[in-house]
Amino acid sequence: MPGPLLTIDGPFVLYRSFFALPDSITDGDGHAVNALLGAANLILRIAADCRPRAIVVCFGAEAAAYRTDLYPAYHADRPPVPDALDWQFARAPDLFGAFGWTTADTDDLEADDLLGALAEAEVDAGGRALIMTGDRDMYQCAGERVSVVFLKQKSAGFDEVDPAEVKARYGVVPSLVPDFIALRGDPSDGLPGAPGIGPKTPPSCWTATDRWRRSSPPRTSSARGSPHRCATTPTNCSPSETSRRCVRRRSLSPRTPRPTSTVVRWRPGRWA
Question: Between 20 and 30 A from 191 (CA), which of 45, 54, 199, 266?
Fold first, then answer.
């Protein structure tokens, strides 16, 4: 039986190795090669344990345009790539190719996008995929035949995260990880999150949000198209806007005052 396809977040392994190993590790011309050496050793170690049928190292844009179009502050505060690391980035594909590994790169998408797309294609073809990354956002890709190889911080080894492990860590299934991250926030990506929501918020908040998303459109007592007063905002809004705002705020804030009869009243699991 063939082994899994191992897809690797190239920027992550290079960044991790660059800051983990001293820049005194140089080539014959005096260029630092600590990131290249560390990344190669790391991939070889994972490959020895997982025995993949193929290895694809993915690269991409620092901040994909479609993401910054949606949220301009995305990755806005990230520092520039150090010159010594940038030099090694340019030479990584040749080094990885010498090991027989494939390098995938794009200017329009990010490495994460390629990781998820390759894993999905492998599963569609009847195979199994491993995603090696340090980005917990990728937990959303965990499935019956997809696991996330998450490297342990400041220590050797890794965890293979499957759907059960995602549920154990976050209290939600993989499909709800994007909602979890969006509500909790992610400082590394410049995402502030929702006020009052954090990583320790009870999982019932996320499952309630999922029930709301999959339920039928809310009913209001206001006439169609007529403006009315929203209990959670001081301004008038249309019925569709009120439904959206009230449902979200009541689902995330149990202390919100009980709404008046002209506002959608919602409790987890049913419409009232």
Answer: 266
